[in-house]
């Protein structure tokens, strides 16, 4: 095993110094998110200051937005806590461009990193295509069967790929709309057609909403070039809008907010989108999801677990949250059981 040989070599040379210091983890970010490089260019490699590095982990993050940033931070914090000073991170951001993910992960493969963390579906798809040998862990990926084209997916990929899912119960997200707007008639489902997991989510939410008696229309946009026009069309023809955990929307919430704010309520699949343009969400903690992914990585790096046998892990907790400013501007009062999204 490559990882074990690296450790043996370090031990024999007397260079490996393991620090006993560990950073505290509490479910909230303890350190600022690390800086990333320009898309497709080598990033400054970062490591915990204590000890000698034994592993290199490449991180490919699709875009710089709140949810993905939190997942990356949680991932790195969990690894640094378990393996202080032993891991060097090569963190690169594709700036929302899916083809750049392929460039980044191909660089990781050429560098023969010990593990690749793929943050968001396009990053996972690129990594899975680039290597069948290096362990790949995805995070912020909704449905792995959809992302990887696996029919009858049962929860374990069975190759060099595993990871964590950000899927919140979609039927409960639909029920949230019924809870807030029981008298609404039309719901517009706004999403980027280039993201297969967004399509999966809106299909499932539509089924649930139609069972409640709503008339639903899907409003797909191809990229940011037609996002504003499609959003305007959706807002003009819908009582309520729903946006899934869509990376393009997450990176451009201002477009949706400029069109919908104070006029059409938007329900979101995750907290970052809701904070930017939404009314309410049923969301997970992306930091905690990143921590779970980091713990999986530690097991793989140390030989405790085989990635091909690791099932996809899911967030254990979901929280109902609302956007105070948006609700006030719409003149609506949240139902009981919702927490205000923190301004910080």
Give the key terms.
seven-stranded mixed β-sheet; Rossmann fold; disordered N terminus; ABC transporter substrate-binding protein; alpha/beta; 344 residues; signal; Peripla_BP_I; ABC_transpt-TYRBP-like; 2 domains; 13 helices
Rg computed from alpha carbons, rounded to a whole number of angstroms? 21 Å
Number of helices: 13
Roughly what fraction of the amino acids lie in strands?
15-25%
Overall average pLDDT: 88
* Low-confidence sequence ranges: 1-34, 38-44
Broad CATH class of the largest domain? Alpha Beta
CATH topology of the largest domain: Rossmann fold
Total domain modules: 2
Look at the structure and name the CATH superfamily of the largest domain.
Response regulator
Elements, N to C (H/E): HEEHEHEHEHEHEHEHEHHEHEHEEHE
CATH architecture of the largest domain: 3-Layer(aba) Sandwich
Q: Quick one: overall form?
A: elongated
Structural class: alpha/beta
How would you describe this protein?
The protein is α/β, with parallel strands linked by helices and 344 residues long. It has two domains: 2-166 and 286-311, Rossmann fold (3-Layer(aba) Sandwich); 170-283 and 319-340, Response regulator (Rossmann fold). The chain is built from 13 helices and 14 strands. It has helices at 2-13, 66-82, 98-111, 121-130, 144-148, 170-180, 196-211, 224-236, 247-250, 253-260, 271-277, 286-301, 324-330; strands at 45-47, 55-61, 87-93, 115-119, 136-141, 161-165, 186-192, 215-221, 240-243, 266-268, 280-283, 313-314, 319-322, 339-340. The strands form two sheets. A seven-stranded mixed β-sheet has the order 1-3-2-4-5-6-12, with helices on both faces. A seven-stranded mixed β-sheet has the order 8-7-9-10-11-13-14, with helices on both faces. Helix 2 (66-82) links the parallel strand 2 (55-61) and strand 3 (87-93). Helix 3 (98-111) packs across helix 4 and helix 6 (170-180) packs across helix 7. It is elongated and about 60 Å long. Residues 1-34 and 38-44 have low confidence and may be disordered.
């Amino acid at each position: 095993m490559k990882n074990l040989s690296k450790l043996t070599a370090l031990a024999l040379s007397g260079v490996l110094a393991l620090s006993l210091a560990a950073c505290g983890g509490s479910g909230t970010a303890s350190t600022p998110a690390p800086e990333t490089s320009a898309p497709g260019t080598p990033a400054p490699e970062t490591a915990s200051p204590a000890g000698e590095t034994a592993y290199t982990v490449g991180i490919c993050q699709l875009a710089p937005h709140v949810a993905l940033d939190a997942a990356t931070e949680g991932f790195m914090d969990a690894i640094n806590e378990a393996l202080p000073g032993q891991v060097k991170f090569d963190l690169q951001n594709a700036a929302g461009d899916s083809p750049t993910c392929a460039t980044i992960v191909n660089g990781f493969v050429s560098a023969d990193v010990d593990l690749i963390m793929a943050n968001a579906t396009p990053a996972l798809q690129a990594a899975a295509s680039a290597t069948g040998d290096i362990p790949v862990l995805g995070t912020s990926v909704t449905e792995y069967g959809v992302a990887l084209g696996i029919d009858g997916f049962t929860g374990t990929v069975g190759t060099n790929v595993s990871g964590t899912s950000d899927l919140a119960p979609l039927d409960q997200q639909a029920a949230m709309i019924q809870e807030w707007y029981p008298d609404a008639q039309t719901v517009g489902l706004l999403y980027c057609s280039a993201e297969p997991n967004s399509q999966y989510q809106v299909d499932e939410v539509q089924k649930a909403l139609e069972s409640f008696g709503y008339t639903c229309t899907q409003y797909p946009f191809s990229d940011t070039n037609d996002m504003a026009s499609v959003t305007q069309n959706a807002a003009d023809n819908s009582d309520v809008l729903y946006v899934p955990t869509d990376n393009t929307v997450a990176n451009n919430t201002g477009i949706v907010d400029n069109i919908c704010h104070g006029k059409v309520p938007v329900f979101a699949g995750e907290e970052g989108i809701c904070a930017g343009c939404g009314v309410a969400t049923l969301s997970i903690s992306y930091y905690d999801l990143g921590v779970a992914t980091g713990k999986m990585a530690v097991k793989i790096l140390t030989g405790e677990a085989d990635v091909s046998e690791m099932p996809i892990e899911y967030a254990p907790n979901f929280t109902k949250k609302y956007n105070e400013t948006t609700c006030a501007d719409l003149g609506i009062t949240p139902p009981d059981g919702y927490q205000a999204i923190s301004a910080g």
